[in-house]
Specification:
90% of the residues lie in helices and 0% in strands. It contains 4 helices and no strands. Helix 1 (2-28) packs antiparallel against helix 2. The N and C termini lie far apart (85 Å). The chain crosses the membrane at residues 12-37.
């Protein structure tokens, strides 16, 4: 699929460059200037389309790719925070239990 896109992009780019050459020739003659300008705009669009077809998706749509990557990394971070906080609350309750036991043991040892 990638190879087909690149071949199509190359063909479109070649057609756009030939069209641009014809448009420049038409613009040189004053009588055909109104025909050369729109043809030049079409050639510019074809050149841009050919370049886009050859580029990978991450270069063509950097914002969308960046958003998707941030969403994935955010989900991973949320999972890790949830795991850490769950472990933290377990450790906190375990620490509190130990502290209570030590206090009780200390109270039993101390004379009243």
């Amino acid at each position: 699929m990638v190879m087909m896109r690149r071949i199509a992009g190359g063909v479109v780019w070649i057609v756009g460059s030939l069209l641009a050459a014809v448009a420049v020739l038409l613009c040189l003659t004053v009588i055909l200037l109104p025909l050369g300008i729109p043809l030049f705009h079409l050639a510019r669009r074809l050149l841009a389309l050919g370049a886009r077809l050859m580029l990978p998706r991450s270069v063509r749509h950097p914002v969308q790719e960046g958003t998707a990557a941030l969403t994935k990394s955010g989900a991973r971070a949320r999972k890790q925070v949830g795991k850490v906080s769950a472990r933290g609350t377990d450790a906190l309750s375990t620490g509190r239990r130990r502290l209570r036991r030590q206090r009780r043991a200390l109270r039993k040892k101390l004379p009243h």
